Amino acid sequence: MSSAGAIHRLVVFGDACESGTLGMEAKRRMRAAMYEAFGEAYASVGVEPGTVHQEDRGDGILGALRPDVPPTLMVGRWVDTLYESLREHNQGRERPLRLRVGMNAGLVLDDGRGLVGRAVDLACRLCDSPVAKRIMATAQDADLLVVVSGWLYDNVVSEGGRYVEPGHYRPARVRTKETDETAWFHVPRRPAPPLLADDAADGDASGNASGKKGGALPGGGGPRRGDGPPPPTAAPVRTYHAGGDLQVFEGNTIHGGLTGIRKDSRGRDGDGA
């Protein structure tokens, strides 16, 4: 298929957590609440009904914004309004509506049947990634998880702005199908999402990792950009007593003439070897 006619658009894919456990009536209510929350979020950034391309995905919604919608509004006010809408809806409910949202930007083609493009594929895969699902399974009280592509984080989120919290995002590697990307994860109103150390280690741009293998990172966060490498661990110091010809013994280097090294008869660590 030719890419002629494709334009650069911001793509949003939202998916409801654990929707497969709901009965028919509960699904109907869930879908109504999801569309209402998305509609309120779009209205908050001046996107009127009918001006955003939306496709129903059963327990999810795929959307593409007009090219003139500032992406900073989408990662800022739009995310904040969506979170507040979900929080209000979920108060006092036994089965809250919890969403994972993937966001990306790139060339998108509307072929008359739907949206086509790698930007669309990646937004959907970030949302449905194993890392995203693990985060929401761990943070059962979280109403919303936002996952943005590396491009969107570097070019939009990292610049900050009103309602934008770049320091509260954490990177993790997403490997699924043909996708191998570093994405950035954010749970609104929290300093960091509960990434596992295994997830965050590959995603950290500086190559650092925190925490023990397989465990949650301290404070629910991952390594931060700009962190330096950990300080080297000092090797244990051992002291030897040498014969008269030995002048200096430093670290692993012997200076001077050596006639022999004897082990101290006291045998204490630090006084002998």
- Uncertain regions spanning at least 5 consecutive residues: 203-273
Span from first to last CA? 73 Å
The helix fraction, in percent, is 25-40%
> How many individual β-strands?
12
Q: Topology as H/E string?
A: EHEEHEEHHEHEEHEEEE
Briefly note the structural class of the backbone.
alpha+beta
Residue-averaged pLDDT? 79
Explain this structure to me?
The strands form three sheets. Strands 1, 2, 3, 4, 5, 6, 7 and 8 form an eight-stranded mixed sheet that branches. This protein has 273 residues and is α+β, with helices and mostly antiparallel strands. The chain is built from six helices and twelve strands. The model is unreliable at 203-273 (pLDDT under 50). It is 27% helix and 24% strand. The chain starts with 6 loop residues before the first strand and ends in an 11-residue tail after the last strand. The protein is globular, with a radius of gyration of 27 Å. The longest helix has 21 residues, at 24-44.
Task: Based on the model shown, name its key terms.
Nucleotide_cyclase; two-stranded antiparallel sheet; globular; alpha+beta; single chain; 273 residues
Give a brief description.
The protein is α+β, with helices and mostly antiparallel strands and 273 residues long.
Secondary structure topology:
Layout: E1 7-16, H1 24-44, E2 53-56, E3 60-64, H2 71-90, E4 99-110, E5 115-116, H3 118-127, H4 130-138, E6 144-148, H5 150-155, E7 170-176, E8 179-186, H6 197-203, E9 241-242, E10 246-250, E11 253-256, E12 261-262
Helix pairs in contact: 1-2
Region (Disordered): 187-273
InterPro entries: Nucleotide_cyclase
Protein name: Guanylate cyclase domain-containing protein
